[in-house]
Amino acid sequence: DTEVTQTPKHLVMGMTNKKSLKCEQHMGHRAMYWYKQKAKKPPELMFVYSYEKLSINESVPSRFSPECPNSSLLNLHLHALQPEDSALYLCASSQDPGENYGYTFGSGTRLTVV
Amino acid sequence: LAKTTQPISMDSYEGQEVNITCSHNNIATNDYITWYQQFPSQGPRFIIQGYKTKVTNEVASLFIPADRKSSTLSLPRVSLSDTAVYYCLVGVSAAGNKLTFGGGTRVLVKP
Lengths: 114, 111
Prior knowledge:
The complex is a heterodimer.
Chain A: E1 4-7, E2 10-13, E3 18-25, E4 31-37, E5 44-50, E6 53-57, E7 64-70, E8 73-79, E9 87-94, E10 104-105, E11 109-113
Parallel strand pairs in A: 2-11
Antiparallel strand pairs in A: 1-3, 3-8, 4-5, 4-9, 5-6, 7-8, 9-10, 9-11
Chain B: E1 9-13, E2 18-23, E3 32-38, E4 45-50, E5 53-56, E6 61-64, E7 70-75, E8 84-91, E9 105-110
Parallel strand pairs in B: 1-9
Antiparallel strand pairs in B: 2-7, 3-4, 3-8, 5-6, 6-7, 8-9
């Protein structure tokens, strides 16, 4: 399995809703990432997990809450989002330190906040 | 983190070679250069990575001069399906490090 799987592919939520995005990989990668991408812009890093511990938080608002239950799973919990949070949310993974290979990205979750 | 500069867009025709140059003047000794391709509403896809000189795989070639302050991604004989955004990233792709995307280059391949 050489893929990063993200669910759901599309999500529409109201500003008072609570929802979660899920990301899964079975490549044995020990780092996982959340990126946010607005239309016609490059992906922006949100969070980095290394060996299941949060190692980087790029000053993301607390309405986004990441969770890494185990080495294969990464969740992004969403609460009280704003319409400007509508974007493509991308998950990625990469191999162990010392191995300088690229990231593997999922296809993303298209989030619309209404 | 090394900042990258790429052309915003490029047009080409089917069957031509496309060369995209990325400038990264403050690249660090340990940094690698990695290129990704992204289609609309999909995640970026790894194309090629290199440290110095030339790297070639089944998809592309990457040329890196001795000073490593720039790099050129070469796509041979492009087809319509190569229309995408191409990103140059500079850094260490090791687990847990953060890689920052630059603006990317929109390549449009015309028939």
